[in-house]
Amino acid sequence: PTYRVDGKVAFADGSPLRGGEVVCESVSLGVEARGAIDENGAFQLTTFEPGDGAVEGEHIVLVAPARRHADGGRRFEHSIDDRYLDFSTSGLRCQVVAQDAVNTCRLLVTPPTVRYDE
């Protein structure tokens, strides 16, 4: 069974991540749930059918932001740090419990790390 999960992706100042996708993977079962991030940073997880939620238990999470054009469209850049693109480095987790109420998953992300060329 799956349980409804609504969430929000935001920065420390409370501003939302606009666009992209959240992917949650069950630690015990390996089952994935996904949700599109809207302009307010909100998402709703889907496993088998739209909006059905995620399986019960702890989930590791990755966040794939919408890609933005940079350098006049020659390359893409992300609006969050690249570590969030991988389950093993994101550090994000979400707990889903078996309940009739909606589970809430709030994810806090940081901007990209600035790198200077030497």
Task: Report what the structure shows.
This protein has one helix at 87-90; strands at residues 2-3, 5-11, 20-26, 32-36, 42-44, 54-55, 57-65, 68-70, 75-77, 92-96, 103-109. The model has no long low-confidence stretch (mean pLDDT 91). With 118 residues, the protein is mostly beta strands. The chain is built from one helix and eleven strands. It is 3% helix and 45% strand. The strands form four sheets. Strands 4-3-7-10 form a four-stranded antiparallel β-sheet.
Quick rundown:
The chain has 118 residues and is mostly beta strands.
Strand-residue proportion: 35-45%
Distance between the termini: 53 Å
User: Based on helices, strands and strand pairing, what is the structural class?
Assistant: mainly beta
Oligomeric form: single chain
What are the low-pLDDT stretches, counting only 5+ consecutive residues below 50?
none
Number of strands: 11
- What does the main sheet amount to? 4 strands, antiparallel
Helix content: under 10%
**Count the helices. How many?**
1
Backbone shape: globular
Task: Provide keyphrases for this structure.
118 residues, mainly beta, four-stranded antiparallel beta sheet, three-stranded mixed beta sheet, 3% helix
Topology (elements, then pairings):
Layout: E1 2-3, E2 5-11, E3 20-26, E4 32-36, E5 42-44, E6 54-55, E7 57-65, E8 68-70, E9 75-77, H1 87-90, E10 92-96, E11 103-109
Parallel strand pairs: 2-11
Antiparallel strand pairs: 1-6, 2-5, 3-4, 3-7, 7-10, 8-9
